[in-house]
Amino acid sequence: MKSRYEAAKNVFIDSIEIDDYIELDSSVTAYKQLQHSIEKPLKMILLFGKPGTGKSILLNRISEKLKHQKEIYYFDTPSVTEKEFFYKLFKVLTKQDMPRNTEVNFSALVNFCKNLRGKREIIILLDEAQMYGPQMMERIRLLSDSRSVKFVVSLHKTEDEDLIAKEHFQSRIWEVIELKNAAQADLASYIHKKLLKKNLFEIANSIKEKDMKMIHKFTKGNYRECNKLLFTIFEICEYYDENEPTKINYTHLPQRIIEMAALKLGYIHV
Ligand SMILES: Nc1ncnc2c1ncn2[C@@H]1O[C@H](COP(=O)(O)OP(=O)(O)OP(=O)(O)O)[C@@H](O)[C@H]1O
Ligand SMILES: [Mg+2]
Description:
Elements: H1 5-11, H2 25-39, E1 44-49, H3 55-66, E2 71-75, H4 82-94, H5 106-116, E3 122-126, H6 134-144, E4 149-156, H7 162-170, E5 175-179, H8 184-197, H9 201-205, H10 209-219, H11 223-243, H12 255-264
Parallel strand pairs: 1-4, 1-5, 2-3, 3-4
């Protein structure tokens, strides 16, 4: 027989699928902020935060929600070459494929955008923008000057990229939205809602307040780390359920299992 923990484990596979989106206090605030910024006459908006704080899923959510009202496009991983990127952009802007073997004439593209001003307003959500080089960013900025294309630039913040984020971007009076790791209450609500969405009521109830505290301590409230930890916890539960069921308690998740998972992931050491 399949263990009930298998389904619980799969709930925590990292995903930015729109159906997996969950409304949390922090995500609702960030969503509203982003939506509000998109309405303003800004050229660029910077969305930043540490890896795993929910930037990609938020961009997908907003794109899905606004797509019937606005011309909005989500660009996931940066194209390998600049040529490919402008190819993609050309298609979105002109609604036509660019003839093969032709180069994008950048100033012609800028002029094209200038002519769109007042006629169309295109919003482009650029995920993983830390991978675009400075020259690309400069060109993106030039395109946004046309005022017909607005960019939401999403970057992940690491310790040494703080400087880039602060000086380069803020000096241009962009609007900045920062996503942070979750507070304990939001993380607990994330875990419960994810399990309840799959009707795993008993398992959701087996994770108590003090377990949440421990999970929050290990993951520092980072959603991706939380996914990894919960996946590992349920993987261990699944093992016991199948092999040594006396070691498992369906009504209360043993804290020892949380510690074992933390050990396995290197959050703690023996
Ligand atoms: N509001 C939310 N609803 C559902 N899942 C979420 C939410 N926020 C974060 N997550 C989960 O956290 C994981 C990390 O989120 P996401 O991939 O969007 O982070 P990111 O900030 O884009 O990270 P990176 O900088 O590494 O690209 C997602 O795979 C998703 O499972
Ligand atoms: Mg991402």
